[in-house]
Amino acid sequence: TFVPAANISGGWIGDNLYPFFKELFGLWLGFAVIVTIFLFSVAKLFRILISSCIYNFLKNPEESIIKAEEEKAQNVVQAKKQEYLMQQKSDRAIPKPNILNRQEKEEKNKAESLICPAVKQTKVDSKIFDYKLPAVDLLKNDSAADFETDKDELLKRAELLRTTLADFDIGAEVKDIIPGPIVTRYDLVLSPGIRIQTVSGIIDNISLAMRTASIRVVPIPEKAVVGIEVPNSSGLIVGLKGILESAAFENSKSLLTLALGKTTDGSGYVTDLASMPHLLIAGATGSGKSVSIHAIILSILYKARPDEVKFMLIDPKRVEMPIYRDIPHIYNPCTCAADADIITGPREAAAALKKLVNVMDERYTKFAKEMVRNIESYNSKMVETGGEKEFYVVVIIDELADLMIVVQKEIEDSIQRLAQMARAVGIHLILATQRPSVNVITGIIKANFPARLSFQTTSKIDSRVILDMLGAECLMGKGDMLFLPPGEARPARLQGAYVSLKEAEKVISFINGQNFPRLYEPVSAEVERNVGFNANEEKRTRDLIPALKLINERKRISQDLLKANFGGSARATNILSILETEDFITKPEGTNKWQIDYDKIKQYLEETERKACGEKQS
């Protein structure tokens, strides 16, 4: 007997739910709703990612088309060969050379050209390379890991410190002694009415009595004591290995974990560059800046693969960073991956930083399309969808002062833009200089670098420039430093980790021995394009032309005249500077009156008007 299709059901669920959905949505829409619910339930039950399935479904047709073109091209070449062999067998009387004619060659080359683009477009996936992070055994043992202290000697020095203060009518009691590998801190409880400034005023006398080179007085509010840091008679070298083996470094999940050194109590100090997000380093010659930079680079190399973190190294001195030239972590936005090298020239550095600003803009555009806020969210989304993750870029400038002498304007503009916006896209800056003056570390740079690392400075003024407080002039040098984290009111005193050149070369040889390909996104080739709008040039032209028209009309020039017409003394001063730079006005030596070149002003206005008319006609 014939059974109507409407009475057939797949089971109890279909028998009971289908009439309900059919009455609610109709015949076909109800069937579609049931199928959708079934597929969603299966995906949740077997933990199948729907977005990944859709991505693979859309990706496969494209791969199938490319594969079909390759097979078609190979069939064409094979058919031509078969045709040639048949023709050679049938016409044995006339000997012919074993070559294809010109038309067959062209068809063969055309067929092979269909295969080559597909091969050239195939990008090497760095994930297939089994990269191993360096082992800490490549570094020397830390001699300061298990330092021993002479208890009697510490108590004797504490009593000497108390009696020295008593000689100057400063009552104090030693509450705690905190020995370290380089410095020992004596925590003092001052008598009521004694100010900290009174103790700070006799630092030289305390140093003389304690027979030490330099003493630093630091208030410790959480313990209600005053700490006096006295250098040890024999200091130990703090090695990088002991900090890398610490639990703080091993448990840190950040790829930009920095092992800076050890505190005054001998514990390793580890911080995260991503949270800073940029670092400013300063100190006198020989104070330990370059060694600290090596420790920073190696600590990142111990955490990150070459496809996770890249280094853009700028070394105007040309002697500190050549050992990192061949590692696969090197990055230069001006060149391709194979040609990336250490940047040494000031103008080359300015061009690279400018290109890096374009890379930042490209990444922001890419992140906006994916609707993510930062590089962490973007990489997490790429893991889910199967896309390619972005890498971090750490820019290290070993001597900023040398660059600021030659190309200050270009360098400062690029650093300002990167410092303000580059954090979200994974670009971080580390600037180092041995001349922390206001001409090098300008207010714009300081405002965007909240994290400061100061080694020994030659004067109190330099200490104020880098730390906004005194203290760096009292350091001992050779890695003794003050680190001011962002948001902290008081810097932490550290002894920087020492890394020898042989240790660094061992780590680099281990990395280079794995032959990891030097790969990164080809965005560097895309950023070199002509941008139709230049904000600085447009603003400059906007102020220049009305000023020239005003001068031509009034037949005079002064700051008060510009201030009255343009508003603001800062803007008037800027316009005067532009006019003098372009030689529209000059002030002869020995006079205080501006001389105006009216012919040049008239010529410039005519050319500008002519260009504007030409653009309107086009």
Automatic annotation (TrEMBL):
Annotated GO MF terms: ATP binding; DNA binding
Pfam (any one): FtsK_SpoIIIE
SMART domains registered for this protein in UniProt: AAA
Xref: SUPFAM superfamilies: P-loop containing nucleoside triphosphate hydrolases
Transmembrane segments: 25-46
UniProt keyword Zinc present: no
Domain of life: Bacteria
InterPro entries listed in its UniProt record: AAA+_ATPase (IPR003593), FtsK/SpoIIIE/SftA (IPR050206), FtsK_alpha (IPR041027), FtsK_dom (IPR002543), P-loop_NTPase (IPR027417)
UniProt cross-references to PROSITE patterns, sorted A to Z: FTSK (PS50901)
Keywords for the protein's UniProt record, in alphabetical order: ATP-binding, DNA-binding, Membrane, Nucleotide-binding, Transmembrane, Transmembrane helix
Binding, ATP: 283-290
Residue ranges annotated for the FtsK domain, each copy included: 266-464
Family: Belongs to the FtsK/SpoIIIE/SftA family.
Identification of the protein by name: FtsK domain-containing protein
Organism per entry: Endomicrobium trichonymphae
